Structure formats: structure tokens, C-alpha cells
Amino acid sequence: MSAAAAWMEPRLEVDKLSYEIFSMLESEFLYDDHKLLLRSTPAAPAASCAVASRVRVLSVDAAEGVITGATLARLEASLRKQSGDPDACVADFFDLAAGSGSGGVLVALLFTRGPDGRPLFSAAEALRLLAKHRRHLVSGARRKGILGGLLCRSGGLLRRVFGNTTLRDTLKPVLIPCYDLATGATIVFSRADAVEADGYDFRMEEVCAATCAGPTAVEVRSVDGRTMIRAVGGRLAMGNPTAAAVTHVLNNRHEFPTAGGVEDLLVVSIGGAEAPAPHGKARALLSEAELVRIASSVHADVVDQAVATAFGECRATNYVRIEGNGAVPGTTTAAAAGEGMLRERGVESVLFRERKLSERTNEEKLNLFAAELIKEQERRKQSTVPAVALKTSVTPFESSSSSTATSA
């Protein structure tokens, strides 16, 4: 008998009817409805998470791009090693990718179709690109906002990288958010919308500019010129896009017909190493940048808590969060911080409680998740029911992948 039930045992001051009503509510509402929400069965909760096919979702936070890039490069290396395929790419093992800010740029690099029909970049190549141009990214952010004019205008790096490719040219569904000052709402660039109409299709160069914009707004237009967005960055709008990605899959039966609940998903959410907390007088007077960092970090934690709670008993097998705890000292570069984060024990957000360290390091989590992705890939070879059915365009368009230049 639970402590609550024991407290409500029939006594002089508690009549039998009150006791029976409480017992009924406890057994029928508190327990049965909770099990229903978790989509589990009382007899075999573990078995409820073992399904024939799971939709694979990648989510990348608006964190330091080189750090999250290092995490993705390590995941890709693990996939190649465990699968025995030296040419395997991250995009081969996911059905949908969501990214915000620098995470959106990484998603665009890894999931845009190149001239050969393969991903434009491998994770290792994307990491080298970000590391090579990181100095320009930082200086551009100080002058004109993140990525600055160097990357977002005609002739810039993003133009050289993406050419004329658009959202329609992505290999898999992608979700990349920004905030639209014109409408006062969060906008999510989506391949699913882009294939519906030209008014929702945007050049990948401008999608990246929009999700990284700030503090100065960037104006981007759809390929037909009819839709204009005055964008500021995805970090402000949706720093952790995991919940949006999960919701998109569960409410998009056209593309994901087998996804009926969280037990039908396999999700990895990648954050960054935590920035050190301010000390001394800085605690009393926070800069705008520090306030944005705190707000973004809190948002990421809240999303992680909500998603983890939604997965319930399937959390251990179907959802993993990769995030640093800031415990590695002496890291002077973003690349070193990325490697250090992989060696750390990850942090887990517990609802209404402080964070706690997980039992495994982030690298161990990645290796285990890579094994699950490979199992899912093999499982699909034996299945006759497709887990994903990508939307095709309802209006004719020509793929612009052939004009992409990747020499940058």
C-alpha cells in the first residue's frame, strides 16, 4: 500500500465513503491514465518500447558550432566503424533533422543533396569548414551579427557552399527555425512545406542566414519572391528544436505513417558544452549576451525535461541527450572543448529538480546510439512497410544541386 493510501486508512475522522473514493481515484486515475499517457502496458513495460521500426530523429542546438560539429563527427566515425561502411554519412541514418542557429547550418551542410546525389558534406568535412572559418564567424558576429555580411551576402561563404540549392534539395526532411519580426512569430523552415508551394521554399543560403541572424535582422525571401521574413536567430526563437522535431513527426502521418507514439521514435538531441557561470561583480550586472545565453540554456533544459518526461519508460532506449557539464578545465579552443565534452559524463535534466550527472560519458552514449541506428537500418532491410514516405513536390521544379560549389 502506498504512503498516501496508508495515510487515508479508515479512521474516526475519515468515513468509509471518502476512503473508497480516494482509493478509486488513486488506482484508476493516478496510475491507469499515467500508463496510458506513456503508451505502456502494465504487464510488460519494456516490451512496449521494442517496435518493428522507429523513425530516427536528429536535433542540434544553437550552441557553439565547432563543439556540436565535433560531436556529429564522432557519431559519424562510430557509424562508419560499426557498420563497416567507410563512406557512411550522418544523413544515411536519420529520417529527419532539426537544427537551430549554428545547429541549423550543420543540418543544412549534412542533409543538402550534392551534385552526386550524396550529402553535400560529411560531418568531418563540415567540422573542418566551421573550424577553418570560425575566426570570421566570431568577427562577423561582432560587426553585423552572427555570420555577418561575410557569409550571408552575395559571394559569401554560404553562397559558395550552397549555390542555388533550396529546401527542396534536402535529402531528408529538415526543420530550421528563426524568429520573424514582421509577424512576431517563430518560423520553422521545413522541407515538407517547401515541396507544397514555392512560397514556402527558400534558398539554403538564406535559411542559414535567417537562423543565425542577430542582433541585426536579416531579410530573406522565398524562391518566388512572395514571402518575406525579417529574421533574427533561431537561438532566440527555439534554441533546442527537439520538441518541434518530435511533434512534427507524430503529426505528419503522410511522411511518417508508422509513428504512432514516442515508442516509435529514436531521437538524439545534441547540445553544447555549458558556458562558465559569471563570477564576482558580473553576477550583479549581466550583459545582454549573458542574458541571451542564460535564456537559451534554460530553454534547452526545459525542452529536454519535457521530451524526456514524454518518453517515459522508453527514455532509456529511445531518447538520448548529449550535453557537456563544463567540467573539463583548460580548454582554450572550441575543438578542444568539443573533444572534452565527449569525455565528460553528460548531464540530465530532472523535472523540478537540479541537474544530475548521467552514468555514461557522452562518447559512450553516442556509441550506443550509433549501434541502435545501425540495428534500425538492418531491420528496415527485412521490413515490407516503409517507415518514411517523403513528400514530393506538387509543383514542378528543377533541382539546383548541380550548381552547388563545395570547394570553400
From TrEMBL:
Chain segments carrying region Disordered: 380-408
Q: What InterPro entries does the annotation carry?
A: Acyl_Trfase/lysoPLipase, PNPLA_dom
Q: What is its EC number?
A: 3.1.1.-
One GO biological process term: lipid catabolic process
Swiss-Prot/TrEMBL keywords: Hydrolase, Lipid degradation, Lipid metabolism
Q: Which GO terms describe its molecular function?
A: hydrolase activity
Give every PNPLA domain span.
56-246
Regions of compositional bias (Low complexity) in chain numbering: 399-408
Function as written in the Swiss-Prot or TrEMBL entry: Possesses non-specific lipolytic acyl hydrolase (LAH) activity. Hydrolyzes phospholipids as well as galactolipids. May play a role in disease resistance. Lipolytic acyl hydrolase (LAH).
Family named by the database record: Belongs to the patatin family.
Domain comment from the record reads as follows: The nitrogen atoms of the two glycine residues in the GGXR motif define the oxyanion hole, and stabilize the oxyanion that forms during the nucleophilic attack by the catalytic serine during substrate cleavage.
The protein's name is: Patatin
Q: Which organism is it from?
A: Musa acuminata subsp. malaccensis
